[in-house]
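lol forgot to send this yesterday, sorry. C-alpha cells for the thing we talked abt
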C-alpha cells in the first residue's frame, strides 16, 4: 500500500517537474523572440541610417544591403510567427487535453513549428548582421580610398 502511494507521489512530482520545465521552455522561447525582434529592428534601422551617407558616393555591393535587409526582415517575421505559433500550440494542447489526451500526446504541429522558426530567425539574424557589416566596411573602405585619391590630386 505504501509502494502505491509512493508511486503516485513520484508520478505527481514528475508531472510537476514537467510542467515547470515546459513553463521555462515557453518563457525562454518568448525571451528569445523578443531579443531577436529588438536586435533585428535595431540593425535594420541602423542599416537604413547608413544609406544617406553613401548616396553621395558611389555605393558598392548594393545587393549585400538588400540581402541584409531581407534577412533581418525575415528574422522579425519569424519571431512574430513564433509568438503566434506559441499561442496556437497552447490552444491546440488545451483542446486535446480537454478531449482526454495525455500531456505527452497533446502536442501539435504548431509546437513543432516553434523550434524551426527560432532557428530560422537566428540564422536570418546572423546572416543579416554579417552582410550589413560587410556592406558597411566595403563602402567605408571605398569612401576612404576615394578621399585619399582626391587628397593626392590637390
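and heres what i got for the seq, position by position
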Amino acid at each position: 500500500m505504501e509502494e502505491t502511494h509512493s508511486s503516485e507521489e513520484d508520478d505527481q512530482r514528475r508531472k510537476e517537474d514537467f510542467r515547470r520545465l515546459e513553463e521555462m521552455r515557453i518563457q525562454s522561447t518568448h525571451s528569445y523572440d523578443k531579443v531577436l525582434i529588438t536586435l533585428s529592428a535595431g540593425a535594420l534601422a541602423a542599416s537604413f541610417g547608413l544609406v544617406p551617407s553613401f548616396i553621395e558616393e558611389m555605393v558598392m555591393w548594393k545587393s549585400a544591403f538588400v540581402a541584409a535587409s531581407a534577412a533581418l526582415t525575415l528574422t522579425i517575421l519569424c519571431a512574430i510567427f513564433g509568438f503566434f505559433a506559441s499561442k496556437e500550440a497552447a490552444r491546440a494542447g488545451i483542446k486535446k487535453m480537454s478531449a482526454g489526451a495525455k500531456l505527452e500526446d497533446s502536442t501539435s504541429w504548431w509546437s513543432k513549428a516553434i523550434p524551426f522558426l527560432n532557428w530560422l530567425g537566428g540564422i536570418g539574424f546572423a546572416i543579416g548582421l554579417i552582410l550589413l557589416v560587410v556592406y558597411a566596411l566595403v563602402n567605408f573602405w571605398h569612401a576612404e580610398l576615394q578621399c585619399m585619391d582626391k587628397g593626392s590630386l590637390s
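The longest helix spans residues 2-55. anyway ping me if u want another try
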